[in-house]
Amino acid sequence: MMAGGIGSRFWPVSRTDYPKQFLDILGTGETLIQQTFRRFEQLAPLENIYVVTSTDYTGIVEKQLPLLPKENILSEPDRKNTGPCIAYASFKIFQKDSNASIIVAPADHLILDQQEFEAVCTKGLQFVETCDALLTIGIKPSYANTGYGYIQFNKEAGKDGVHRVITFTEKPDAQRAAKFVSSGEYLWNSGIFVWKARSIINSIEKYLGDLYQLFKEKQNWLGTSFERLMIADIYAVCENVSIDVGVMEKANNVFILPASFRWSDLGTWNSAWENMGKDVRNNAVAGNGVLVIDTTQCVVHASNEKLVVLQGLHNYIVVDTKDVLLICQKEKEQDIKQYVNEVKKLKGERYLYSVNDNIKPAPAVVERVY
Predict the structure, then answer these.
(1) Of 294, 300, 208, whose CA–CA distance to 249 is shortest?
(2) How open is the CA angle 103-231-217, to the nearest 5 degrees?
(3) Is the Cβ–Cβ distance between 31 and 366 less than 8 Å?
(4) Percentage with pLDDT > 90 across the chain
């Protein structure tokens, strides 16, 4: 489980020191990482579940996942994207079991239909058991989402319904996304991977040679008291690169397994709105003190202690915390990350870090119309 991101597009609820994977964004009673952990707890014994996270978040992981062995929390001193993250976990797991199969998944995604998810994962594990392959799980697109990556695949299915990957496209514009969906040749990139530990390590050696050498030279330190020093040394000099760009887009043994379970990467407030309960005017409201009047298709997040009255809004994001009020058109949600950068530049880092009410799970969804 990869749990090191900042989740800046969920600002101001998600903060640098307490990001979205540790919050109950949807008001379900569980944080996103707790949901992900429970999902994989059905597939693997506890000792086989690993979480890779920032050093700053290890205490939060320990608190939210008390059943997870502490030695299975892998701490990253710097954020260097998914390439080093996956390399670290893969070398660690390979040391324990050279024949291990691995499922890699973000800790902050929403997946519904546990039974279908388990069936897809099982099919993927069976495929890589007998095939030297890098397998990704693709989601059948339901509409032309411009915030997701797309994967083009060969329509001719091979063993176990698996297809060979042709191309990767990251966040296309609306016109291209619509074309992708209508063609039937593209799936959403879920960011969930299945492979043998040896397969991904061999691919890292081939396509990210410098990163491979850094881990190879110091792999004997894994599992010792020097592991943290080893990782600090590696992360101080390794490249910031995603596994998609560094390996998946270059390798010739990349396959995709189509899946139809309900999935969202919960990357933005609009994706939260899509997955929250709504009133008859399509408002998704989290906060017992929120009154919406002549308001439609908005997502509102506020504390239970404050009265928030909204009138005449359509298609807006409204997020009210103790120290920040965000009012933003939903169509501009991809720009929130830029707004955070502007806040940092003009106001310093004060509003990038949490105050007391920001680290509490979001309240349950309350539906009301006036």
Answers:
(1) 208
(2) 90
(3) no
(4) 84
What is the value of pTM for the model shown? Answer: 0.90
- Distance CA(359)–CA(14), nearest Å, equals 8
pLDDT band at 356 (very low <50, low <70, confident <90, very high): low
Label residue 225 exposed, middle or buried (CB < 10 Å: 0-12, 13-18, 19+).
exposed
Query: Taking every pair of C-alpha atoms in the chain, what is the biggest distance, in angstroms?
Result: 65
Segment among 61-75, 156-170, 182-196 with least mean pLDDT: 156-170
Contacts of 39 (CB under 8 A, 6+ apart): 111, 114, 117
Instruction: Reply yes or no on whether the pLDDT at 55 is more than 90.
Output: yes
Give the C-alpha separation, 332 to 154, whole Å.
34
User: Which phi and psi (to 5°) does residue 211 adopt?
Assistant: -65, -40
- Cα dist. 304→16, 34, 60, 69, 275 in Å? 23, 23, 23, 35, 21
Q: Which of the two residues, 286 and 235, has the higher pLDDT score?
A: 235
Between CA 112 and CA 38 the distance in angstroms is: 12
